[in-house]
Fold:
Amino acid sequence: MADKISRQAAEEAIAAWKAYKDMEREAKAAIATAEGVIDAYAREHIAEFEDDKLALTKGIIAIRAGAAKPVKDGKALAAKERAQLAALLPADYVQLKCDFSTLYGCQDKRVRQILEAYGIEIKKEDKYTVL
Structure:
């Protein structure tokens, strides 16, 4: 059995966690700023790319394909609009996905019977977090 953790050790761990979270936020902001500069430079020098890459002294900028997403009037489609679109499209282009968070607390008898019939249990693995 593992040794018992003291309150002081937990307090120190919380302080360290908060400090690292602050550093993480600062790092993410700095990365976002750097990415903006890199993106702007890449767009200005797109003609210099060879095989979707632009070599610089400190590294290589590469074009990476982004994820496809439905957009209307410059805005991503809402879940309801996505569902309506999915209903119109041929089945080959539509994937069904379950909302397991909703299923976790579901009290609907029919849903519970379906899950039970297939031997499926919806589990949720909670973790501790610091606020």
Strands lie at 53-55, 60-62, 71-72, 75-76. The mean pLDDT is 92. The first strand starts at residue 53 and ends at 55. The radius of gyration is 24 Å.
